[in-house]
Amino acid sequence: xxxxxxxxxxxxxxxxxxxxxxxxxxxxxxxxxxxxxxxxxxxxxxxxxxxxxxxxxxxxxxxxxxxxxxxxxxxxxxxxxxxxxxxxxxxxxxxxxxxxxxxxxxxxxxxxxxxxxxxxxxxxxxxxxxxxxxxxxxxxxxxxxxxxxxxxxxxxxxxxxxxxxxxxxxxxxxxxxxxxxxxxxxxxxxxxxxxxxxxxxxxxxxxxxxxxxxxxxxxxxxxxxxxxxxxxxxxxxxxxxxxxxxxxxxxxxxxxxxxxxxxxxxxxxxxxxxxxxxxxxxxxxxxxxxxxxxxxxxxxxxxxxxxxxxxxxxxxxxxxxxxxxxxxxxxxxxxxxxxxxxxxxxxxxxxxxxxxxxxxxxxxxxxxxxxxxxxxxxxxxxxxxxxxxxxxxxxxxxxxxxxxxxxxxxxxxxxxxxxxxxxxxxxxxxxxxxxxxxxxxxxxxxxxxxxxxxxxxxxxxxxxxxxxxxxxxxxxxxxxxxxxxxxxxxxxxxxxxxxxxxxxxxxxxxxxxxxxxxxxxxxxxxxxxxxxxxxxxxxxxxxxxxxxxxxxxxxxxxxxxxxxxxxxxxxxxxxxxxxxxxxxxxxxxxxxxxxxxxxxxxxxxxxxxxxxxxxxxxxxxxxxxxxxxxxxxxxxxxxxxxxxxxxxxxxxxxxxxxxxxxxxxxxxxxxxxxxxxxxxxxxxxxxxxxxxxxxxxxxxxxxxxxxxxxxxxxxxxxxxxxxxxxxxxxxxxxxxxxxxxxxxxxxxxxxxxxxxxxxxxxxxxxxxxxxxxxxxxxxxxxxxxxxxxxxxxxxxxxxxxxxxxxxxxxxxxxxxxxxxxxxxxxxxxxxxxxxxxxxxxxxxxxxxxxxxxxxxxxxxxxxxxxxxxxxxxxxxxxxxxxxxxxxxxxxxxxxxxxxxxxxxxxxxxxxxxxxxxxxxxxxxxxxxxxxxxxxxxxxxxxxxxxxxxx
Length: 950
Prior knowledge:
The chain is an alpha+beta fold. It has 30 helices and 27 strands.
């Protein structure tokens, strides 16, 4: 049935009825007057591309109502019939998207073909863009679809030799599926600016709000459309950009690991290239037998730190197991594999029952555990007959090559730096840790950095904190491979992210207390993790009947005895209050407050001469009763800590054997403490909530909105479902404060550049006593470059100016020192760089080139100078540029392209120094310029492919 004009038409086209030039009518009368003057002489149409009738429209001006377009009446004076459904300001968004994207691409010299698609709803259901030169296709999906319809369109539009980008207008199941496939989904929306609409491109991630960027801030790379936020995600491997032929993340289904056994066939080669491959894992071909099913040939994905299974044994999957599935491929079909955390070697009888093994195969040789693989500390008696291979060993190839161990000097320096961070009660990142330890840790591979932390924390003892928990990523979260590090150290690893965060936060607190400057160190107990990866619950044991009493816990029989016991307990509690924090500090302070109130009441009664009447008639309990309550709180606090006095500096004495009493006091107790046995789930939940509140305060202090929101999302369900009603009422204001602060800070989080700039300012403030002058100059240069692109507060800009003056003062002081004591061992040509200066510049330029390679782009010397600042990278003589680039690529493997090939001149042309650098490094260099340029172009493509997922 036809729909009559609703008189609220806000969009139209100009020119003709079939025009694709949209306009928006302002709703306010004064804006409409300006609109009429701007479009004087233009005719407006209810355009066919808007789903309209094609009739001419006029503007209607109102003072008390919304201004809008309206159809001209016919010769009879009645309004015409129009079938147009969408009339609002967003009804022409498909035309604005087509217009702005076309202009944006043409401004870059890219030819584009744009078409509107009617998928059954309106002419603006989708916008298709085709770039013939780069063979790149973009579909802006503006109407909702089900998966079947979207999948058919995906198959029709995508080809192996073309790049395809999907951009969605709204959040839904299809965009969520895209997030699971590649870690993100692109979104599009339009915002009104006067009589125009501006296009914004957003990045949708799991459990994160969409971050929007202006179209002018985006880039078109060989692998697709990229926003500033997406560049950061691709740089730290949080997302996978779907390039030509790129493999997307496989779908996963949970499996029962203990019901799947397998045996490998050594004659079948392992797949070399697979879409199921992942960093830090390897794939083998095996005969897999699920419980109650037949045997099938399949692929099994295992971590690199699990020794390669041999054909002499049968194995059962161990830990978390999942089924991996890829999307159907026209050539290879659907590929799948079984993913597991580790394997368990079966005994002879059990292995024979599977049908995958016969005794005659394995009697000739028994495969033992590699000597360098440590045995887990939690190994049970039942596991003595079956060797468990999990994430507890070093990487071992099938050829038996010994793994590379970290440099002992590097281990000592990193351990010392982490202890310094623990003394300052602050976590760190890889870059900051490297600056303090004076090591270039960013050049190490992820596996090498992981092995370095494992070596730092070995050996593990109950009273020694795991210092690796202090190293966090850029968002303050535990490292991605922290679970592997925990297993390598022989500790049961958490099974989920929340438990992992709680475990790491507990180890962080343990490190703070262990390296505290206080004379009494109270080290919290390590968070116990069970074999299932969840926090272990203490066994239920009954209270011993004849519990021995200490002299201070006996109930006194006299008033004076109770008074002395209460005073002694308060002195002891006051000493503990100075070294405790978190829930223990809160619990003990409450008990101290009640005891102090009772003691004040006693002294008040004593002044009146009614001491014994007060003792008999007190409704709050006697002095001895309050002393017992306070002693119980003190014992509970001490049960959570290890009392460790700080030794004073003394003259070294000959080592003597420790007394049995001292050894017994420091040995870990085999029985659970009384507080742990009788602690209710509500108390445990209350402690977890208080810990989350402390973490939220820390995130507030450094303005880490992402971290604060993540903590708020964990604290909210904990507050609603696990706290007691009294605790819920008491903490309701705290949860409301969290929610309000996170909501107010939403505009700040939309700019990753702003967050990065503030983090740099905070880093300079935290490391002012340890950072080198060059390190400070690098941080300040990056912060100043970011400050020109974001809006900082006055105090933050004053901080930058203060650090600039501080840097200048340090430079002048160093210059005076160098002038008074000139170095005579190093010849320096006037105006040229010395050898040490060349090596220093190479160490700061190479990370930027690696970042450029990961971002699939090119750079120039001026861009490098802008990113580092002229104080770090000044304008160099061409010969010095060549020496720096030679030093940059000195460590590049011979079978990989040179990183210096990413430095270009002009319109992405080969740099004149490329030939010199390649020749200096004994690379084959063609004499023909044409051939050299072709080889350079191939090197750039190879370099992008190598660094895309590093």
